[in-house]
Amino acid sequence: MGQEAHCHPDAFALGGEAAAAAVSSAMRKNSTYHPETLAAQADHFLDPTTGAIVPPLVSSTTFARTEDYALRGTSSYARYDTPNWSQAENLIAKLEEGAAAAVFASGLGAAAAVVMTLQPGQRIVMHDALYWGLKAWVVRFAQQWGLELKLLDMTDLAALERELKAKPAQLLWFESPTNPLWQVLDIEAIARLGHAAGARVCIDGTVATPVLTRPLALGCDLVMHSATKYLNGHSDVLAGALAVAKADAWWEAILANRTSVGAALGPFEAWLLLRGLRTLYPRVRQSSATALQLAQFLARHPKVHRVLYPGLESHPGHALARRQMEGGFSGMLSIQVKGGAEAALAVCRAVQLFHRATSLGSVESLIEHRATVEGPAGSAPPDLLRLSIGLEHPADLETDLDQALAAI
After folding, report:
1. Which pTM value belongs to this model?
2. Helix, strand, or coil here: 370?
3. Most buried by CB count within 10 Å: which residue of 39, 159, 222, 361?
């Protein structure tokens, strides 16, 4: 594992096999640590040479070999692997309770590497409401690659079961909660139905994060993240990540796709991602608590037609969310304002604290008129505003939304 290895405090005084044994012993002990602890300490990192507690940035794209042409560590070339990848991947795998993880240049790149394992003529069933960028790419790729694509409302489990019994699929793909309507899908039930039909079951876990939901423990084969969002959490990295329940031949094919299409994450971006992961748990929990407070305020507001947030008891998926989300309901919510698209845009113009920007899951709060961003091909309602709640004081965010809504 090279310098990303966890190191026993006495390892500096040891050498050779003794040092390796100390590192191995420390790693075994780490299995009992809570995920918050592993994240905060970057997987209990300690540099065995310098004692640094912050993992180093290894910017080299190539790595020298020994006289016998053996690898000195695990890396040979940066498109295949780098130490900074390994550090982030090992931590993500542990947080997701998976067998392995991999980082990518973007969330879409990570998802594409999975879809590209399908062969022409095979079938993919996707939830009909999911991230519009991925949906648009899959529709286009399926046509080009000769895949059969079925878009289906997976909140209707009976309809999903009928569909899979009528014609099995090789891959199921969905997200929960869904963006930007925040539907809650039954992860365990979908995994069960998919496996009964012989399909691999994949979920986009970007919004819930492993802080709130661990889909692999609920039966999914793979969880994907746009790591640009909550995993990094600082609006300064474009990245994706996958975690898998079983490191089998399918997983190796996914990794081969990452290499062959060049969807490699840069070492600096991987280093920043690991830095962001260290504060993942307090960030997600704080933003989730604030989002719930704001959702409750907005649900009472006379200028708001509807609040979409799984944490509200009025949400149709609230009971399911309580069952499969632990410690919060995410920092994402949407509102539909009275007065249609023009009123929604007026609210966007009137905010003073929220930033008018695309993306989500960072420390600063964002507001977005989703229909404008998606364009004519999108499906977001014209009166909908998507809110990504950051780490500001809840009262300041509430005041800003109240004065902006007063403008319509």
Report:
1. 0.90
2. helix
3. 361
